[in-house]
Amino acid sequence: MGFFSAVKKLFGGGAAPETETPDVAAAPETSSGTVSSGADAAREERPQPEGSAASPAVAQAGGPAPEASVPPSADAAPAAVAADGEGMQALTLRLRQAEPRLSVWLDIVLDGVETADDLLWQRLTFLLSALETPAAEASSFVEDFRQWARRMDYRYVADFRSELQYRLALALDMEDEEDERSRLFLKISQGLSRTREQFSRGLNALFASHGELDDAFWEELEELFIMADLGYEPALELVERLRERARKEGVTSAGDVRGLLMSELAEIFQAPRRITAINPPEVVLFIGVNGVGKTTTIAKLAHRARMQGKTVMIAAADTFRAAAIEQLQVWAERVGALFHSRAAGSDPASVAYEAMDRALKEKVDILFVDTAGRLQTKVNLMEELTKIRQVIGKKHAGAPHRTVLVIDATTGQNALSQARLFKEAAGVDELILTKLDGTAKGGVAIAVAMQEHLPISYVGLGEKLEDLRPFNGEDYARALLGESEPVGGRSRDA
Ligand SMILES: Nc1nc2c(ncn2[C@@H]2O[C@H](COP(=O)(O)OP(=O)(O)OP(=O)(O)O)[C@@H](O)[C@H]2O)c(=O)[nH]1
Ligand SMILES: [Mg+2]
Questions:
Q1: Chain centroid to CA 103: how far?
Q2: In principle, which of 81, 200, 299, 421 could form an S-S bond with 331, CB 3.0–4.6 Å?
Q3: What is the distance in A from the centroid of ligand 2 to the CA of 407?
Q4: CATH architecture of structural domain 282-470
């Protein structure tokens, strides 16, 4: 359930939304001027949305209204009020006529807004109110964002637009729209761009140079898979599956293997169905080897959950070093999550138990439990994970509801051993693959999903809070194979 309830209905009634906030009198004269010139510049660069009959009116958005009856020598504020009143109406018209997508709406309200100042906050509030967001929720969203931008020292809209759209999408529960998928696809494609050079180019060359499906073709395909970090055995298995499929489906030309590969990958990435209902609070335990991105991923997921209006607690069951506890505490503060910790060196299971107790008492929606990185081969450390799981389950039946193994995509073949041993020792429900932005090879995802039959729920594509996206197998396969478009239709994820 999204943070704002029932907000997706854009202007259902037909009347222009009330512009509750525009505290336009406070808008400095300069921002009005910026709007005008910025809007002009933006119009030159950007094609108007289809059917944008409102263009002439939009040209005035925020700019001086020709019929403003205020003498030019007067204080600029009243003119700005009139201008913005007009501007808001023009914006309303333009929004109504635009394609109903968050990115397009955001383009419209940000038209001519270049810096993080009053005009931006007005426009955002305006958009939220146009989407029927209750005033209190809208102003708390805007205020949170304003504080965040100030804290992060962001001044230009261009620098934080992506984070803004991400937060709006989560808050408005609109993340599954087509546009978000394109963004995700783009990010994955960028992340895999170096992979594409190696893998999809190699693949294209192979398809072009072989007409028939002879042994040499399959051997070269296997080599390509191995080079993309699939590992020897998974590469062999994948080639076998493709050969079998080609035989069954009567595929005889090399070029047609591309389609087979795409559907085989989509099948490999298909998440098995499972019961997702839980008894709150939902408890998510994070495990993995050192430095893979467990703590950062918790912060990113906590951020997502907070943006969706959930209450979150983070437990520092990584008591191995003081710096780890501090790192997590800083993240918790940044995303607005409750935090539970003990001194460095405390028993991790006790910390988890106490946090579980507190999460129940304080009725939080989600408890994330961070653990120290450990090598999958260290038996005693793996036993510690079992103990953590047991104490949590004792306090709260069914918990942890999800045990997430975090894998660094740049790890290469070691990822397979991590997946196998963590699954055996601690039980793993899902995988999160981090640092896809930094890998030259994307095959690890295929290998791990194929070997362990575990769903990949999210992928990490950078260090920022927004750089975590729900995983979509089909889009991943397309990006890996160098397609330029995500698959059509709506996202199945999140
Ligand atoms: N480029 C990139 N860096 C990431 C990603 N996820 C995490 N990192 C970085 O990886 C480093 C380690 O991240 P942590 O979250 O501390 O890893 P950890 O698994 O908690 O580490 P330990 O607790 O020491 O085992 C940090 O510098 C993160 O910023 C990602 O998706 N992309
Ligand atoms: Mg950590």
A1: 15
A2: 299
A3: 13
A4: 3-Layer(aba) Sandwich (3.40)
Confirm if 473 and 456 have CB atoms less than 8 A apart: yes
By most ligand atoms within 8 Å of CB, the mutation choice from 329, 341, 463 for ligand 1 is 463
Pull the structure tokens for residue 414: 């070691």
What are the beta bridge partners of residue 371?
A: 317
Cα dihedral 91, 97, 100, 104 sign: negative
For residue 473 and ligand 1, the question of a CB distance below 6 A is answered with no
The answer to whether the CB of 374 is under 6 A from ligand 1 is no
Residue 482 near ligand 1, beta carbon < 6 Å:
no
Name the residue with tokens 């931008």.
Answer: 149
Hey, whose CA ends up nearest to atom 13 of ligand 1?
293
| pLDDT of amino acid 329 | 96
300 lines ligand 1 (CB under 6 A): no
Domain extent listing, the chain = 24-175, 282-470
Query: Tell me, what's the pLDDT at 197?
Result: 60
10-residue averages of pLDDT along the chain (494 residues): 39 38 35 32 35 32 34 36 68 90 90 93 94 91 90 82 84 69 69 66 88 92 90 93 95 91 91 81 97 96 92 96 92 95 95 98 97 90 94 96 95 90 93 85 87 92 86 85 64 34
Residue entry with tokens 């120290």: 372
